[in-house]
Amino acid sequence: MKSYSRKKSPWIIHFSCSGCNGCTIEELASLTPRFDIERFGAQFRGSPRHADILLVDGVVNKKVSKRLKRIYNQMAKPRVVMAVGACATGLGVFRGNYGLEGPLDKVLPVDVFVSGCPPRPESIIDGLLKAIKILGEKD
Predict the structure, then answer these.
(1) What is the 3-state secondary structure (H, E, C) of 54-75?
(2) Counting C-beta atoms within 10 Å of the first and last residue's C-beta, which end of the chain has fewer, N or C?
(3) How far is it, in rounded angstroms, from Cα 62 to Cα 129?
(4) What is the pTM of this model?
(5) Fold assignment, 2-138
(6) Residuewise pLDDT in 10s, the chain (139 residues)
């Protein structure tokens, strides 16, 4: 019963590390009636304790990595991590910067990668559907 409810109504927590906020704008565009991720039952939540999917965009720098790990550890299992955008998946234009921990997969175990700078809302929705599928399989 739990896996059915997780597949039908996943809750998402969004964490923007740093960067240009282009990914954040596209993620918010996926909430609009034109793209409407709520048709899949997905909703953004503010508390990691209630979330099933951690959606991270931007570059993971040294100051943010501790907070990001804390949020990840507060989430209930099973949980899925999505890396959204070129910065989270491979550092993008910030490659070579001294203050970075690296791409998100060096800090947390990432399940879904959504590339693009910024990624289109359709790509984010596709990544979300993959995350929902993985969430159902983890249980």
Answers:
(1) EEEECCEEHHHHHHHHHHHHHC
(2) N
(3) 30
(4) 0.89
(5) Rossmann fold (3.40.50)
(6) 566 666 667 899 999 987 788 888 898 898 888 988 888 888 888 899 999 999 999 889 888 999 999 999 999 989 999 999 998 888 878 888 888 888 899 999 999 999 998 899 999 999 999 999 998 887 6
